Amino acid sequence: MKRAKVIIGAGYGDEGKGLLTDFHAAAAGPDALVVRFNGGAQAGHTVVAPDGRRHVFSHVGSGAFAGVPTFLSRFFVANPMLFQREVAALAAVGVMPTVIVDRRAPITTPWDMLVNQAIETARGTARHGSCGIGFGETIERNLDARFALTMADLATRDRLTATLDGIRRVYLPGRLARLGLSASWAGLRDIALSEDLFENYLRDIEAFGAGVAVDDGGAVARARTVIFEGAQGLLLDQDRGAFPHVTRSNTGLRNVLALAGEAGIVALDVTYVTRAYVTRHGAGPLPHELAGPPDGLVRDTTNVANAWQGSLRYAWLDLDALRQAIAADLSDAPASIRVASHLAITCLDQLGGRIIHVVAGQVRSASPDALIAAVADATAMAVAFAGTGPTRRDVTPVRASVRRAA
Fold first, then answer.
1. Which listed residue, of 21, 141, 242, 283, carries a Cα 20 to 30 Å from 196's Cα?
2. Strand, coil or helix: what is 32?
3. CA distance linking residue 233 with residue 273, whole number of Å
4. Which distant-in-sequence residues (6+ apart) come within 8 Å of 33 by Cβ?
């Protein structure tokens, strides 16, 4: 019976998915495969190796420090421009990752990024919280077969250049017009039609193609151990989050179940990850929001303020909301695939000896050990891992079982 591990964020992202992926990858060894099953280059999974090397993973799976290759599935949106930056950053710390891409994976162009940024700028104070790198716009464009671009299309130069020319000359102004942003075309026209931009992007695509292997999805079936690494979190799911402040992606089990079925995987060991507190990028609701980082030892050097999403936002962890999000996701699992689920709680070292949280609408305070027990109790799910630092050595297996029914 073929099994796979699954790492899913239970909040708004930044829960510690990279840390748990690295932890499992190191245990599995280089014969494993990390599968990115949603999202794209907007992901930022920070991993600190035991020797101190640090990287924020976007395209490359968070098992790369452990020597585990990455598979970018058909649900992953690849960005050749940003991929080159990441590969260069990893090379600087001595990592040469192996990356395999499904031929059906959508490809982002610079014109998707221009549309994305124009839309979000036009929203002014009503922004949705976009990263501005064209993720959702790539998915939107690929709905039109005339302008769709996938990994398979990069192999034929004439077809590729014709498609790209159509995107910049026809699709881009048409998309802006449909959005009521025709006036934006005047300001974007020169850069959109720039031959330098066109040629530079072709060079990025050539380098991207040379740096990855192309696959039809069979790599997942062939891998000895599979680790599905999610991006963003359940509360940003396109179907279950607070629209419109969501990502254009299914952040939970849905994509995993489709890929597992194709690969003959019949059992999933799912870890839902949460910090001991909650964070969120950009606009959208955030219950129990704080004015700034919670008191304690919180130091987030990854999520610096930026023009698109502002500063990272913080809130207390609501155990009932955690339970509801996970229960909704687990409802997608069919009887044909066995799903064993549990929790991981990270950043337990950052809030001192007493951790404030919310349960049944009441604000409470608990020691780290008591919080672990409270989470298991409130969610009716065992807590299997506790994170008390930035590296895999700081992840401790625990056995916090459920004391009562949900």
1. 141
2. strand
3. 9
4. 68, 69, 70, 71, 219, 220, 223, 225, 226, 227
Kindly report the backbone phi and psi dihedral angles of residue 48, in degrees, each rounded to the nearest multiple of 5, phi listed first: -115, 120
Alpha helices in 243-318 (DSSP H): 253-263
- Cα–Cα–Cα angle for 37, 205, 44, rounded to 5 degrees: 40
Predicted pLDDT at 133: 81
Domains (range + CATH), the chain: 3-101+216-275+316-351+368-400 (3.40.440.10), 110-211 (no CATH)
Tokens of 175: 């998309």
Structure tokens at 37: 């099953």
- In the block, residue with structure tokens 């990287």: 55
Give residue 125's Cα distance to chain centre: 25
The label of the residue with tokens 């690849």 reads 78
Nearest CA to 288 out of 296, 278, 297 is that of 278
For residue 18 the two structure tokens come to: 């990279």
Taken in order 240, 241, 243, 246, is the CA torsion positive or negative?
Answer: negative
pLDDT surpassing 60 at residue 304:
no
Query: Which range is least confidently modeled, 10-24, 121-135, 322-336?
Result: 121-135
H-only helix segments in 123-214: 135-141, 157-166, 172-178, 182-192, 195-211
